[in-house]
Amino acid sequence: MALDLRLSQKQAQVMVMTPQLQLAIRLLQLGQLELVEELNQEILVNPMLELTPPPDSAEAAARESLADPAGGQTPDSESRAGDEFADSAGASETAVREEFDWESYLGEYSSAPSTRLNVGSHETPEETPGFESFVAAKTSLADHLSWQWRFAAQNERDLALGAQVIGNLGDDGYLEATVAEMAAEAGATEEEMAAVLARIQELDPPGVAARDLAECLLLQLGRLDLGESLAAEICRRHLGLLEKKDLAGLCRALGAAKEDVAAAVEAIRSLEPRPGRAYHNTDPVYITPDVYITKAGGEYVISLNEDGLPKLRLSREYRQLLANKSAEVETRKYLSEKLRGAAFLIRSLHQRQRTIYRVAEAIFKAQRDFLDYGVEHLKPLILRDIASDLGFHESTISRVTTNKYVYTPQGLFELKYFFDNPISRFQGEALSSESVKNRIRQIIGAEDPKKPLSDQRIVEILRGSNIDIARRTVAKYREMLGLGSSSERRQMY
């Protein structure tokens, strides 16, 4: 069979994601803080974009005067006023510099080469580290132990073996390698490595470098001079009974009175099972609401949060340059392209805000009872319901509600929180799964800690409240709420 090459034409319908469409979709799914960062970046790369000055600023007043001939302002007077402002600002800055000895204040971290101090001087200002470089970072567990070990190590050999141990600690402070593995890696004997490990276990925090939970607790009890106590015996031999909170079983195994065992258990409960917990470098998560809902005169008012959101406009100066026929062709071509991108960005931003408003309005039209009475009255809602109401595609509703937060009289929630699967009832309308979770939390919060309710008992209570739910669903919701099983919730005394 002969192969040949030939040209042919055919018609087909395909969806092409243009750069403009990609930008619109990306803006739609960005949260408030991410949107601010995106717009600030666009301002840097697109000269056609600039920030709208505040209404009370000098620039805004000057532009209003130019727009109103009665104001008596001309471009020349505006220029003179700008020069006067610049001269005044320069004189004020000079006065401030003369009144305050900035060089002594900044010392070696000055942004300019110091003429008084030799330490920290740099050839050029660019070589000087910025102030943000000196913001204190949270000390990690490895840094804290290394600092202590530099004082405790007797020689360079000790320092190297200690570094091997510290490097094999997990985030919780437990040793994640065996003594034999560390000795082989460091080229030392197991006896040397075990001796160094024992010394590192004496450092702060107590219990660090333990190989298991029992050793961690015993190290901490040893610091409290309780190494031979009843609590230590429980940690050595009976952690399983302690885990089950079997106080009677502990009394039988130890042959001790209930009061003594209870005191030993209380001592163990005061210990830290994760010594490295205090040194976890977890960054805080900041949430800025995209939508505010307030109540005014019996009605709820929806408002978009635009605080801190850059107000964009097209640059007048660059538009004038674009209209100048004597400008270079390449310059006008470049500005024309940037003008189209800037105009589309501003339109997309406005469209994003309108879409978020309409979606929020539709959601809380359906969830009015939630605003009035709380989570117990949250109704089942799916993306298709809002999409059908607004005439949007479900994917659009999903993008709008992703990573967006709303502040309501009931608290701060993600918009996706209000979309939930229904839980059927024996009679009446279905309930939202979030309202059922809240009911489970309330039931467990009101139980007797010494006799916690089983999942089956919670099912019976919910069925008594006209809620049809399976035991495995209760167990799933309980785990999602971070609540333990009945045996884990039981108090020993």
3D structure, described in words:
The protein has 493 residues and is α+β, with helices and mostly antiparallel strands. Among the domains are: 141-279, no CATH class; 423-489, Arc Repressor Mutant, subunit A, CATH 1.10.10.60. 52% of the residues lie in helices and 6% in strands. The protein has 23 helices and eight strands. It has helices at 19-29, 32-45, 58-67, 75-99, 102-106, 141-152, 156-167, 179-186, 190-200, 213-223, 230-237, 239-243, 247-254, 258-269, 316-323, 329-366, 368-373, 383-390, 394-401, 433-445, 455-464, 471-480, 486-489; strands at 49-51, 291-296, 299-304, 312-314, 405-408, 411-414, 422-423, 431-432. The strands form three sheets. A four-stranded mixed beta sheet has the order 3-2-5-6, covered by helices on one side. The protein has a two-stranded antiparallel sheet with strand order 1-4. Strands 7-8 form a two-stranded antiparallel sheet. Strand 5 (405-408) and strand 6 form a beta hairpin. The longest helix has 38 residues, at 329-366. The radius of gyration is 34 Å and the shape is extended.
What secondary-structure arrangement, pairings included, does this model have?
Blueprint: H1 19-29, H2 32-45, E1 49-51, H3 58-67, H4 75-99, H5 102-106, H6 141-152, H7 156-167, H8 179-186, H9 190-200, H10 213-223, H11 230-237, H12 239-243, H13 247-254, H14 258-269, E2 291-296, E3 299-304, E4 312-314, H15 316-323, H16 329-366, H17 368-373, H18 383-390, H19 394-401, E5 405-408, E6 411-414, E7 422-423, E8 431-432, H20 433-445, H21 455-464, H22 471-480, H23 486-489
Helix pairs in contact: 1-16, 6-7, 7-8, 7-9, 8-9, 10-11, 11-14, 15-16, 18-19, 21-22
